[in-house]
Structure formats: structure tokens, C-alpha cells
Design a protein that fits this description.
With about 525 residues, this protein is of the alpha+beta class. The protein contains 16 helices and 20 strands.
């Protein structure tokens, strides 16, 4: 009896799967096949339309009131194909999930549609009702629109060219492997380029190229996530050259640490790098032909031995973090107050670098006409430099630290703007700039020393003065920007536009609803 019941339940599950309504993307992807295609869409229209009113996109939507009929739309997906380039689309198909009936008047908001003048034979088990013909410009041409009823669901579908393409969409199987979310973003753009197309464009990659751009927003910034399969492409190319699987080599998996923040005042800039994917026993022979690797490694080891380091020390440093930061305050000679700068390297043996710190501190103090005094604070041991330039050179359990900034900044922690927050998390790669802080500094430096710098750069550089000035001035449109690696396939860029500029362009954010006390 139990076996019969289990078989019945399993049969119901299989039946439900077999007759499940397809996604909008299944309909479009099934019509374009494995050609070169570009696609865009929204995964959840409700979430798109009902954003918090104080988010940037929510404020922007207030500028263009949406018609009531848009509430009938669910996820939508549009795809276009081209054989040589995307100046003109060979095929254009679109599908939108419907939550109710739509009329010709509701889709003719731009008044560029005409009543349907075509017929199409619907595949068995589906119903296609022609709705309109819409003019979509020279690149796309006329688009035939119809309502598709299939598997208990309704869709607004459209295709250019032969109306029979609508029938191909209606018959497309569900669960198409090409319909996959590579990012968590609701608004997305994808592209698929075949190997043959890439070869014709002199881009000899071993497999088809795929990418996705996801677009999100916060109350103050816009985030763009870029996913590509370029890591797979590179690994496959390199593996052919090496005669071994590169992916099997890059398995270090060491967890990177958050970058050090040093010096008070807002963090002005940060670059953080880590090769934590390297294994502990990494050798150049892992990624190079054996003979070349042996000679190159021999030369590197010879250089390292002069300062008391080994190859193993270098690998440990590479697997750690190297951080270049601009923070704190520095009263620079002839310039005035600007952000300080520091370099932090983890994985360094403090005992091995101690003699080097002493020699370096003495040489620097002599060059700068100051003195070097012992420095010990927060686990750092080294030297504090004073004179024309103040700074610190120290080592400890957390690695090596070199900083140029005012002495009252030592040991302080820089403030991080919200738009740079992602860059101070553990990453293999992070780059962030606080342009709100940097722009006036760069503007002042260029006004004081720009002519001298361009003169020294040669005759060809003189004509670029206006361009450089314009670039620096335009930096004021953005308060912060960051670029980080989320994983080997994914990068996220976040741009925080200038608050004053945003408030000038967009309606004011709606005040949060205040609920009465219980």
C-alpha cells in the first residue's frame, strides 16, 4: 500500500513538472536557439514597480507615472539575434507574463501600433490570439504581438518578421538551459556569443562567451554587477598551453582578510590585492613550462636571498593582502593638507624584516633631514619618522606597515563612506575612490603644479590641459566609486552620484511612514 501511495505521489509530481507553465525566457530562448544573442529583462515586475520610495530608482519612477495596466505584467524577457553585428537584429522576440487580459488600447500607449493584420497557427495545446503590429524602428522592424495561452498561463509575446516565429515561441519547451540568472539583480542584460562569431572577430576563445550585467540601486548609489565566463575561457586556454588543468592548480582557497584602515578622516582611496587562490606550495612550474619556470624561479630566489627572504616567504606574501590606502591627514611641504598614504602587506615575517626597517628608517631620515625614533603601538614595532615628512615604518603580527601622514593620525581608523563599504570587506581585489574628498585635492594640485607637470611631460602633453581640467571638474558629479571582485567570475561596480546633483534631478524621497505608538 505504501509503495502504491509513493508511486501515485511521484506520478503527480512528474505530471505537474511536465505541464508546468514555462518562464518568459523559455519562450524567447527557445525561438533564438544557440545563435549570437543579446537579451534584457526584469525578473520580478512587482518588485521593480514597488521599490521603496526613497531608493534612487523609486524616486526616478515618480517622474514617469506608470499606467494601471502595467500591474498586469509579470517577468519579461526580450532577445535579439545577429549574424555579424548587432546594428540590425535578424530576430527579435519578447515574452511577458500576464496576470490578466490586455487590450489593444493598453499596449498602444506610444500610439505606434495598429490592429493585428496577421494570422498564425497555434501549436497543439496552445492558443494564440493576434493583438497588434507595432513599429519598432529600423533596427528591429515591425513586431507582431499576440496573447499566448499555454499550460494555464497567459503571455504577451512578440516577434519581428514572419508571424510563424510566434508559433515557434509558443511551442518552446520549458526549463531552457540558456535561461539562468548569473546575478541577483532584478534588472538584467545578457549576451551570448558563439565561438565561430568570436573567431570571425579575431577573438580566438576556446568556447562560447557568456555574460550578464545586473543593475541594482540603494538610497544613495547604483550597483552594476558583471558576470562573465572569462575565467573558464582563460583556464581552458592556459591548460592547453601548460598541458595540465590550471583550475586544479589554483586551489589555494585562503580566506583573505579585510584591508587595514589606517589614519582618521574619510578614507580617500583604497587598492587591495590578494592571490589567495595560490596553493601554499606554489611553484612557477605550476603555471609555466618546467625549464622556463626553473630559470625564472632561480633568478627570483637570488634576489630574495639578498634581503634574507625565501621563495616560500614570497608565496606567503602573495597569498595574503597587499593594501595601498589614502587616508588620514598629511601636511605636505609646498602643498598643504592632503590625504596621507599607507602601504600594508600581510604574510611578512616581522623578525626577518626588522633589520631592513632599521636601515630603511635611517636612510629616509637622512634624506628628509629629520630623525627616526622607535615606534611601538597596537602591535606594531618599528620607527617613527619626523622632519619635512612624517611617517611610520613598522612590522608586527599583522605584517608590514609603511605610512606617510601626520603623527597624530597613527593608529587611527579611517571613516568609510557607504559607497565604499564593499571594498573594505575580505576580497581578492578591491578598488575604491572617495571622489568627494579627492576631487578638490586634485583640483588644487593641478592649479598649482599642472603647468609645470605638463611642461615636463613634453610638447604633446601641453594640449591636454583643458581635457584634464574638465575630467577633474566632472569628478564632482560622483561622490564615491568602488570596484570589487565578488568571485572569479563576478565583479561589482558601485557608483554614488553627488547628493546635490541627485536632489536636483530627482524628486525628493518620501518621508518614512511614522506609526503611532501602541
Amino acid at each position: 500500500m505504501k509503495k502504491s501511495l509513493m508511486a501515485f505521489v511521484l506520478a503527480l509530481c512528474l505530471a505537474a513538472t511536465a505541464f508546468a507553465a514555462p518562464r518568459a525566457g523559455d519562450l524567447t530562448a527557445g525561438a533564438v536557439g544557440d545563435a549570437n544573442w543579446i537579451a534584457l529583462g526584469v525578473r520580478d515586475m512587482d518588485a521593480f514597480l514597488n521599490r521603496p520610495a526613497d531608493m534612487l530608482l523609486g524616486r526616478a519612477l515618480k517622474m514617469a507615472p506608470m499606467p494601471e495596466s502595467i500591474g498586469k505584467l509579470g517577468a519579461w524577457d526580450a532577445r535579439g539575434t545577429a549574424a555579424k553585428d548587432f546594428d540590425k537584429l535578424e530576430k527579435f522576440v519578447m515574452a511577458v507574463e500576464l496576470k490578466g487580459d490586455v487590450t489593444f488600447e493598453e499596449i498602444n500607449l506610444a500610439e505606434n501600433a495598429k490592429p493585428a493584420d496577421f494570422t498564425v497557427a497555434a501549436p497543439e495545446g496552445t492558443k494564440i490570439t493576434p493583438l497588434a503590429v507595432m513599429e519598432a524602428g529600423e533596427e528591429v522592424g515591425k513586431v507582431n504581438l499576440a496573447v499566448l495561452e499555454r499550460d494555464g498561463a497567459k503571455y504577451l509575446i512578440g516577434a519581428n518578421g514572419d508571424p510563424a516565429l510566434l508559433a515557434a515561441m509558443a511551442a518552446a519547451p520549458a526549463d531552457n538551459a540558456a535561461v539562468v540568472a548569473r546575478t541577483a539583480a532584478n534588472v538584467w542584460i545578457q549576451a551570448h556569443l558563439t565561438k565561430a562569431f568570436l573567431e570571425a572577430s579575431d577573438a580566438d576563445l576556446p568556447k562560447d562567451f557568456d555574460c550578464e550585467i545586473g543593475i541594482e540601486d540603494t538610497k544613495t548609489s547604483v550597483k552594476v554587477t558583471l558576470w562573465t565566463n572569462m575565467y573558464d575561457e582563460i583556464c581552458e586556454l592556459a591548460s592547453k598551453e601548460l598541458g595540465k588543468d590550471l583550475r586544479a592548480v589554483l586551489t589555494g582557497g585562503a580566506q583573505t582578510k579585510a584591508p587595514l584602515l589606517f589614519g582618521t578622516a574619510p578614507l580617500a582611496g583604497l587598492l587591495n590585492l590578494s592571490a589567495s587562490f595560490l596553493p601554499e606550495g606554489f611553484k612557477l612550474a605550476d603555471i609555466m613550462p618546467a625549464e622556463e619556470a626553473a630559470e625564472a624561479e632561480k633568478q627570483v630566489v637570488a634576489q630574495l636571498s639578498q634581503v634574507g627572504f625565501t621563495w616560500e616567504d614570497l608565496v606567503k606574501i602573495l597569498r595574503g593582502n597587499v593594501t595601498l590606502g589614502f587616508a588620514g591627514k598629511f601636511n605636505a611641504p609646498m602643498v598643504g593638507e592632503i590625504p596621507g598614504v599607507y602601504l600594508h602587506v600581510t604574510g611578512v615575517d616581522a623578525a626577518k624584516v626588522a633589520p631592513l626597517l632599521g636601515m630603511g628608517a635611517q636612510q629616509l631620515s637622512g634624506m628628509l633631514g629629520g630623525k627616526a625614533e622607535p615606534y611601538e603601538a597596537n602591535g606594531w614595532h618599528g620607527y617613527q619618522l619626523s622632519g619635512m615628512v612624517s611617517g611610520v615604518l613598522a612590522a608586527g603580527e599583522n605584517g608590514l606597515l609603511a605610512a606617510v601622514m601626520n603623527a597624530d593620525q597613527f593608529g587611527m581608523v579611517a571613516e568609510v563612506e557607504p559607497g565604499m563599504a564593499a571594498a573594505v570587506e575580505p576580497r581578492n581585489f578591491a578598488l575604491a575612490l572617495n571622489t568627494k574628498v579627492l576631487q578638490p585635492v586634485l583640483k588644487g594640485l593641478f592649479e598649482k603644479f599642472g603647468d609645470q607637470a605638463l611642461e615636463a611631460a613634453g610638447e604633446g602633453a601641453k594640449g591636454s590641459k583643458d581635457i584634464i581640467k574638465q575630467v577633474i571638474d566632472n569628478m564632482g558629479m560622483v561622490d564615491a566609486v568602488s570596484l570589487v571582485a565578488a568571485d572569479e567570475n563576478t565583479f561589482v561596480i558601485e557608483v554614488t552620484p553627488n547628493e546635490g546633483l541627485v536632489n536636483m534631478v530627482l524628486p525628493a524621497p518620501e518621508a518614512a511612514e511614522v506609526k503611532p505608538a501602541a
